[in-house]
Amino acid sequence: MRKKNFLIVLIFIWSVSETFASMPVDVIIKGCVKEGMLTNTETDFGTHKVKRDYKIKVIDQNTKKPIDMVFYNNKVVKIKGYLLPGDRLFIDKSSIQVINSCEENKKLNIQEQELLAREIFKKLSETDENDTEIFIENYNRVINECPDTEWAQESYWRLTNIYLQSFDKADYERIVK
Predict the structure, then answer these.
(1) Going by DSSP bridges, is the β-strand pair 49-60/37-44 parallel, antiparallel, or unpaired?
(2) pTM: predicted TM-score of the whole model, two decimal places
(3) Sign of the dihedral defined by the CA atoms of residues 45, 49, 52, 58, in that order
C-alpha cells in the first residue's frame, strides 16, 4: 500500500513539475538578427539576466504564426514577450525596438580602440569649448567604444569636470552614473 501511495505522489509531483516547466515566462530578449533569425544574446527574466547565444523563434502572439525578422537583418533588437519551452518567444510586434546594428555591437581590438580614441580627441581639440553637448557625447563615445584605453579614463575625468563646472548647478547624479 505504501509503495502504491508513494508511486501516486511521485506521479503527481512529476505531472505538476511538467506543467510548471511549460508555463510562459515574461522576458525581455536582446539579440542580433541575421538572415531573418534572431540570435538571443541576453534574456532578462526580471529577477536575473542570462547571457548566452542561441537562436530563438519569434512568434506573433495574436496570429500564433512565426514573424519574419528579415526586416531587422543586421540589427540588434530588444523584444518584450513571453517565452515557452523550445525557445519560442511570443510577442506583440509593437514591442520590437531596434538598438543599433550588429556590427556596432562588436568590440574593437585594442589597436582600433586607440586609433578611434585619438581621432575623437583630435576632433574635440578643434571643437569650440562652449559646445558642452559635443564634448559629453564624444567622451561617452570613448568610454563606450574604447574602454580598454587610457583615453577612456581621461574621458571619465573630463566628463566629471563638465558635470561639476559647466552647468548652473553641479549634476551629481550624472557624475555618479
Answers:
(1) antiparallel
(2) 0.48
(3) positive
